[in-house]
Known about the structure:
single chain, two-stranded parallel ribbon
Amino acid sequence: MGSGPNGLAAAIVLAGAGLRTLVREAKPTLGGGLRSAELTLPGFVHDVCSAVHPLACSSPFFRSLPLGRYGLEWIQPAAPLAHPLDGGTAAILERSVEETARGLGPHGRDWARLFAAFARHWDALAADVLAPPLHIPRSPLMMARFGLKALLPATVLARALRGTPARALFAGNAAHAFLPLQQPGTAAFGVLLSVAGHAVGWPIARGGSQRFADALVAHLRSLGGGVETGAPVERLEELRPARIVVLDLGPHQVARIARGLLPEGYRRRLERYRYGSAAFKLDWALDAPVPWTARDCLRSATVHLGGTLEEIVASEAAHERGEVHERPFVLFVQPTLFDPSRAPPGRHTAWAYCHVPNGWTGDASDRIERQVERFAPGFRERILARSVITPAEFERRNANLVGGDVNGGAMDLAQVFRRPVLGPTPYRTPLRGVYLCSASTPPGGGVHGMGGYFAAQAALADLG
């Protein structure tokens, strides 16, 4: 139930094992967070939620699938990430650790010292990180080395980097945690996304993220699996007599559709599950590329707009207090520089969001655009049309995004290990044959499909 990347991953594993498999999707289109649509003007294709996919290219499961056979093509920009600073300069995350270090100035060797070993052993590290928390590591020494850094607050690990550019670049990656950067565990996000950029890049899918979902669906069908759209489920009983039911749903939705069936204690734990801060998103149709002051920003599809480490720390602390900073940290994507198929000739699209409190009802549009203008004066003059997706609109489009939380629940340390409940196999429920696989299960948010993979493996093991 549910056709997000985890639901489709689970269906592919089950169909590949020879089981007759059906995916039911409540919405008219498949893909969950991998949908694309003409949000602004005809001919301008925008990614509705997820747009850039370092974790998909790191996923042991997705990498094992022949998705290129079904039209999926990854585009690798010249540089994975750009982070402009005031004064017309930018910190650039290059594919090469050494080249990144050189670009960061006289203290760039700090970057290489921190990340080079992880980049060399990325496949093993990614397999351990994208696994349930209670497992025997594939690479115990590398995982221990990673854990010593990952458990720190991002603000503490940032001290290992000297110089404003390096610290800003790291802070922007750490801010993907949607948490105050003084919290323990936020360094993990900064390390993982930095290293992923070196190891596999930060690619986009040609034609939009929907092409990724379409390729997964095509592969599922090649295995004999079926899909139904516009097929919401109101009660779990509707899915019987299926021997296996895998729910790509958040804990609150599971508690609702399984009401009266779950043991009381388990139901209460699902209902106590905490959602984190939300995204407020803008999409633009543009008549020309973004006029960055730092021209190196044109080398990357992804640009982090937040200024210095100190500014990003202040921004990420604000939404935890129920506020939105006047200069919010903004994640900005400019796909048509590298994929002109997404817009009419000579035109462009751009995508951006900032972090806001869960369920926030305000309007951050002006604040986001002011941050873009700060590093690209004249940007607003190039806007042909804009689309706004508020936290409520995110949830309306995808019920798993409760209050606009695109990570499937707060990713603090406590909930990383209790996602959605503490246990050696959190994908199992007390109901025979019923499993969970959404981003609210390990390893959490991001497009990697591993929650679906592990849920399906648990189901197959239970079938014997």
